[in-house]
Design brief:
It is found in: Cell membrane. The chain is an alpha/beta fold. It contains 22 helices and 18 strands. The chain has an eight-stranded mixed beta sheet with strand order 2-1-3-4-5-6-7-8. The structure holds 2-acetamido-2-deoxy-beta-D-glucopyranose (3 copies).
Length: 645
C-alpha cells in the first residue's frame, strides 16, 4: 500500500497514524517535559531547514488499547504544536511500520528530520536494525538521551558515516532545563565514534547552534587512508614510481589537486592505476576507474571525468573542476600548393572594379568634352596634349597605375587631372593593403565543419577513446547526426579494435592519417597541439562538458572534498593550476612570419610573360603590315620635325 511513498501521501499517513498513535504508544515514551521536545525539535528543524519530521518509536504492546493516558496526551500536544503552530509535516511511526511500509522509499521524502524520543532498549535495538539498511546520512537525526545511556553503548554496532548529521540531546547535569547537543560521526566504519558539541538549548534562548558550517567543524580525516586511482595520461596526470615500481604519487594537474586536498583533509593516499576512465555496459558491468569505484576497490578517482547522466548511476562526482567543449578535430588541410588565380583581383569585389572602369571612362570623357568645348569656342589649344578619346583613356588608366600625365594648359582639364590623381591614390592604397593581406594570410578550405559534413565526406573515419564517457555519450545520444556518426564510423573502429586508448594516440593518428577525425576535449587538443606535428582544426562543438573527479556513489567524503575544492576555487588556486598545468605553452606558438610563396606570385609572373608575349606578337604583326610604308612614315615624321624647327 505504501510502496510508493511520497510527500503527498504523508498527509494521509499522518491522519492514519494520528489514530494509531492515540492508542498505540506504551508508557514512558517521553523522557523530557513536552516543552523541551517542542522547542528543541522546532529549533533543530529550523536550523537544518527540514521539510518534515518523522518520530520513530517502538511500541511493544501495540494492539492493547492504552486509552488516553497522560503520555499520549503529551504526544498529541507535541504533534499539534509542530503541525499546527509551526506548520511542519509531522508523522509518528513505529520502527516496524517504517521498515515494512516506507522501506527504501524513505529517500522520496525531502530533507526529513528523524527523531527518537528516548533511548530505551527497544528503541536502541530497532534503531540499530534500521541503521543497517537506511542511508544514514540522508536524514537529519535527533535522539533524546536519558541520563543512564552513554554514547558508546547506544552506537555500538551502528555506523554513523562522516557526512551524517546526527544530533544527540542530553540534559545538562548542572542546569535543569538546559540541553547539551552533541553531534556524532565516524571517519570510517572501523574507526572510533567522534563527537563534537553542536550547541546548547534552553527554553528562553532557544538553540545556540555552531557558528561554523558542517565541514568547517569536521575538517579533519585524522590520517584516514583513501584509495586513489588515476590514469597514466600525461601531461594531465602521470605516476611517480619508486625502484620497486610501486606508485608513490601522482603528478600533473590532478596530482597537484590531490596533494592540496591531502594537506587540507589530513588524510593519506594509496595509489592504484586504472587502465581507462571506464564506462558501464547495459548489464551493469563497469570497466576502468568507474568499475573500480563501483566494486569498492578505490574511494576516489583523480582524473578528468566527463560528468554524464549515465555515470551518475554508478559513481558520484565532485564539484566541477572546469568546463570545456567536446568536439572532433581533424588535420588542417594543405593550402600552399594551390595557385589562386584570382589573388590579384580578389581584393576588390566585382562591383568596385566596375566602378573603377566607370570612373576611368567618365574622367576621360570629361577631358574630351572640355577640350571639345574649348575647340568650339575657337580657343586654340597651345599644347600638344592628346585629344583622342582612346588615347585619353590610356593616360587616365596610366594615372590609376600611378603614372604621370602630360600637363594641360586648360584649368578645367587640370581639375579633372587632380580628381584622377586623388582617386587613384586612395584606390591604390586600399588595393595594396588588401593585396598584402591576401598574399600573406594563409587561407585553407575546411572540407566540412560539422559532424554532418563528416558523415557525408567519403572515406573519413572517426575515433574516440574507447572505454570512456565520450564513447558512451555517442553510443547513447539521441541526436540523429551523432548516433549516425556512431553507427557508421565509430562502431566500425570498435569492431576493428582500432579505438585509441589515450588522447595522444588519437591525435597522433589524426596527423598520420589524412582522413581521420578524433573526438576530444578542447583543453586536451590545445594542450597536446604542441606535441603533435600537424595543425589540428576543430569541427563544430558536439556538446559542452563539465569535468569533475569521481568518488564512490554516496561516498561520505564527497561533502568535505567538495567543500575543499570550492575553497580552492574561491581562493583562485584552482584557476592558477589550470593556467599553469593546462595551457603552459599556449603562448609559445604565436604567430611566426609568413613568407609569400612562389605559388602566390604565379599569376603575376604569368601576366608578365603573357603581356610581353602579346606585345612582341603585336609588334611583329605591325611590322609585317606596315613593312612597305614604314620607311615613308619615318621620312614623313623627319620632315615634319624639320618643318617645326
Ligand atoms: C537553512 O536556510 C537558510 C535560509 O534559506 C540558510 O541560510 C541556511 O544555511 C540553511 N541551513 C542549512 C543547514 O542548510
Ligand atoms: C592529522 O591526523 C593525525 C592522526 O593521523 C592527528 O594526530 C593529527 O592531530 C592530525 N592533524 C591535524 C592538523 O589535525
Ligand atoms: C556483461 O557483459 C560483458 C560483456 O558483454 C561480460 O564480460 C560480463 O561478464 C557481463 N556481466 C554480467 C554481470 O553479466
Amino acid at each position: 500500500m505504501f510502496r510508493k511513498f511520497d510527500i503527498s501521501s504523508i498527509s494521509s499517513l499522518i491522519v492514519l497514524i494520528w489514530t494509531i498513535v492515540m492508542f498505540d504508544l506504551a508508557w514512558g515514551q517521553l523522557i523530557r517535559p513536552t516543552y523541551v521536545y517542542e522547542g528543541l525539535i522546532g529549533d533543530i528543524r529550523s536550523y537544518f531547514n527540514n521539510t518534515c519530521i518523522i518520530f520513530l518509536h517502538s511500541s511493544p504492546n501495540s494492539y492493547e488499547m492504552q486509552g488516553l493516558t497522560e503520555d499520549n496526551l503529551h504526544l498529541m500536544h507535541l504533534q499539534k504544536y509542530l503541525s499546527s503552530t509551526l506548520h511542519i509535516r509531522t508523522a509518528f511511526m513505529d520502527f516496524h511500520m517504517f521498515t515494512t511500509q516506507v522501506g527504501q522509499s524513505y529517500n522520496k521524502i525531502k530533507r526529513p528530520l528523524f527523531v527518537l524520543l528516548n533511548t530505551n532498549e527497544d528503541t536502541r535495538n530497532n534503531f540499530a536494525n534500521v541503521s543497517t539498511w537506511i542511508m544514514m546520512s540522508y536524514p537529519t537525526w535527533l535522539v533524546f538521551f536519558d541520563n543512564e545511556t552513554n554514547l558508546e553503548d547506544f552506537f555500538f554496532n551502528v555506523y554513523v558515516p562522516f557526512d551524517c548529521k546526527f544530533m544527540v540531546a542530553q540534559s545538562s547535569i548542572n542546569e535543569t532545563g538546559k540541553e547539551i547537543i552533541t553531534e556524532v560521526y565516524q571517519i570510517h566504519k572501523d574507526k572510533e565514534l567522534r563527537s563534537n558539541q553542536f550547541g546548547v538549548w534552553d527554553a528562553e534562548r532557544g538553540l545556540e547552534g555552531p557558528s561554523h558550517g558542517l565541514y568547517q567543524r569536521r575538517n579533519d580525516l585524522f590520517g584516514q587512508n583513501l584509495r586513489v586511482a588515476s590514469l597514466q595520461d600525461p601531461p594531465v596526470s602521470l605516476f611517480e614510481r619508486n625502484e620497486q615500481n610501486e606508485i608513490t604519487g601522482i603528478s600533473g594537474f590532478f596530482g597537484e589537486i590531490i596533494l592540496l586536498l591531502q594537506e587540507e583533509l589530513n588524510c593519506t593516499f594509496t595509489y592504484k592505476e586504472a587502465g581507462s576512465w571506464g564506462m558501464c555496459l547495459p548489464n551493469g558491468t563497469c570497466t576502468g576507474a568507474v568499475g573500480m569505484l563501483k566494486n569498492d576497490e578505490i574511494d576516489f578517482a583523480a582524473s578528468e571525468f566527463m560528468m554524464t547522466k549515465q555515470r551518475l548511476d554508478y559513481v558520484s562526482f565532485t564539484t566541477p573542476i572546469f568546463s570545456t567543449k567536446c568536439r572532433a578535430y581533424i588535420k588542417r588541410p594543405e593550402s600552399a600548393s594551390i595557385i589562386k588565380w584570382d589573388t590579384y583581383i580578389a581584393p576588390f569585389s566585382v562591383n568596385i572594379w566596375r566602378i573603377i572602369v566607370f570612373f576611368i571612362i567618365i574622367l576621360s570623357a570629361s577631358i574630351v568634352f572640355i577640350q571639345k568645348l574649348f575647340a568650339i569656342a575657337s580657343i586654340r589649344l597651345q599644347d600638344n596634349s592628346p585629344s583622342r578619346f582612346t588615347e585619353i583613356i590610356f593616360f587616365i588608366t596610366g594615372a590609376f597605375c600611378s603614372q604621370g600625365m602630360d600637363q594641360s594648359t586648360l584649368d578645367p582639364v587640370r581639375m579633372v587631372h587632380l580628381v584622377t590623381y586623388l582617386t587613384a591614390v586612395v584606390i591604390l592604397a586600399a588595393y595594396s593593403a588588401a593585396l598584402i593581406s591576401f598574399l600573406t594570410v594563409k587561407t585553407f578550405v575546411m572540407p566540412f565543419t560539422t559532424m554532418e559534413g563528416l558523415l557525408k565526406e567519403e572515406g573519413f573515419s572517426c575515433g574516440v577513446i574507447g572505454n570512456s564517457a565520450y564513447y558512451t555519450f555517442l553510443q547513447r545520444t539521441t541526436d540523429k547526426v551523432m548516433s549516425q556518426v556512431f553507427d557508421k564510423l565509430i562502431r566500425k573502429e570498435t569492431i576493428a579494435k582500432k579505438l585509441p586508448t589515450s588522447y595522444m594516440e588519437g591525435l597522433e593518428r589524426v596527423c598520420r592519417e589524412d582522413k581521420y577525425a578524433f573526438v576530444t576535449l578542447d583543453n586536451m587538443a590545445a594542450l597536446l597541439q604542441q606535441k603533435v606535428n600537424c595543425k589540428l582544426e576543430p569541427l563544430d562543438v558536439i556538446t559542452p562538458t563539465t569535468i569533475a573527479m569521481t568518488l564512490q556513489r554516496n561516498s561520505p567524503y564527497r561533502g568535505i572534498i567538495n567543500a575543499h575544492i570550492l575553497l580552492l576555487k574561491d581562493s583562485g588556486i584552482l584557476q592558477r593550476l589550470l593556467e599553469t598545468q593546462w595551457s603552459v605553452q599556449l603562448g609559445a606558438s604565436t604567430t611566426l612570419w609568413k613568407s609569400v610563396e612562389i605559388g602566390d606570385i604565379m599569376p603575376l609572373l604569368f601576366l608578365m610573360i603573357i603581356a610581353s608575349f602579346i606585345s612582341y606578337l603585336v609588334y611583329i604583326i605591325e611590322r609585317i603590315i606596315y613593312k612597305n610604308c614604314f620607311k615613308r612614315v619615318k621620312i614623313k615624321t623627319n620632315k615634319s620635325q624639320k618643318l617645326k624647327k
